[in-house]
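Quick one, tokens below:
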């Protein structure tokens, strides 16, 4: 019996990791990168996805609010869009908006986020700057399930990155991005084969 493909949606900011995701999905016979959505005012990732023939569009909270609609309605509409397209896994890569419990309840254990620090250290925005300002010698990235908190969900994978004395925010970000791409692609492959198991805060690879 032929195994069903994993229908994947990627929620992005500018789309810095999108190219790597596209390449690993294209090589995997069990993964279909079906949708790309950005909440940023401008995003190079949307243009790239369209060139690759992937459905992609902007879904900006500011546009929504200008119409007098609530944040709850925004989350609800996004969930409906993903459900209509029968999305099996939602990857947040550079998506800065915290999604509420109503959104997450539509995709139980099917929303993951990549964060540029070793959680629980340096949550939220500007994690690379936080690490440099704190004087951290080691930082990295964390791939985790999304809950209602800010970068607080159960951890799937982590990768460490050494901070050198000459690192800038940009140089540190580039090093972290390479590690992020690695664990994102690894996790998507495992999800497509039903090899990731979650028990409370513990995540196991079968």
């Amino acid at each position: 019996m032929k195994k069903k493909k994993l229908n994947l949606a990627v929620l992005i900011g500018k789309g810095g990791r999108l190219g790597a995701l596209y390449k690993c999905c294209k090589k995997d016979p069990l993964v279909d990168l079906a949708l790309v959505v950005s909440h940023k005012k401008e995003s190079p990732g949307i243009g790239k996805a369209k060139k690759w023939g992937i459905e992609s569009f902007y879904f900006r909270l500011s546009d929504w609010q200008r119409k007098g609609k609530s944040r709850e309605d925004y989350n609800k509409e996004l969930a409906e869009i993903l459900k209509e397209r029968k999305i099996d896994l939602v990857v947040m890569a550079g998506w800065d908006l915290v999604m509420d419990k109503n959104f997450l309840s539509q995709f139980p254990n099917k929303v993951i986020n990549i964060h540029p620090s070793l959680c629980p250290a340096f949550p939220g925005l500007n994690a690379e700057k936080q690490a440099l300002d704190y004087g951290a010698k080691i930082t990295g990235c964390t791939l985790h399930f999304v809950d209602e908190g800010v970068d607080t969900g159960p951890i799937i994978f982590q990768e460490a990155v050494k901070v050198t004395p000459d690192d800038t925010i940009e140089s540190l970000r580039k090093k972290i991005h390479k590690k992020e791409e690695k664990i994102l692609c690894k996790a998507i492959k495992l999800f497509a084969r039903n090899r990731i198991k979650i028990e409370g805060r513990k995540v196991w690879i079968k």
